[in-house]
Fold this protein.
Amino acid sequence: MNRKGFSLIETVLYIGLLAILLPSFVMVTLGFVQKSEVVDPKIRMEEKVAVIFSQLQYELTGAESIDLTGSSLGIDDSSFVFVDREGVTVTVERTADAVSFLEGDQFVNRLTWGTVAGSEWMTDADMDAEVWNVAIVRDGGGVLTGVNVLLTLRGLNPDGSPYRDIEFTADTTISLQAFTTEL
């Protein structure tokens, strides 16, 4: 006898196997998607903080002076002023920015890099800079030797709800050169 195609029993067996395997596949796929939704923003935050700290380190190791009187240091909403290697006064601070989300506008604290030429955002619109704390570091003789920077970013939800459960905190100390003066 020449058989072509599938019998009804074979078809029912295949459908049964598919019904057993498909939920497991769907659960694994959903788990992966949910995990990537949490991991991707955290990696973006880590990368953003690394870029900010790298830029600060580059600029501060060649800075002419640190303006201690023009800065507000040692608080979670610090304002940090210094004169870079080209003699340009730079202010790094937290600034509230209205960002549009699906549910409406929301104010987000973002870091800005400001000079006389203008300001630019250092953090993304979906990252709230909760803590920007800059403190000076002195040696035993009271000489300014470095700057300690603490930055905490918190991820915002694109659907308009206030926060994801994603937060990243980084703390670093940047050494200053001997020629850097304090104002």
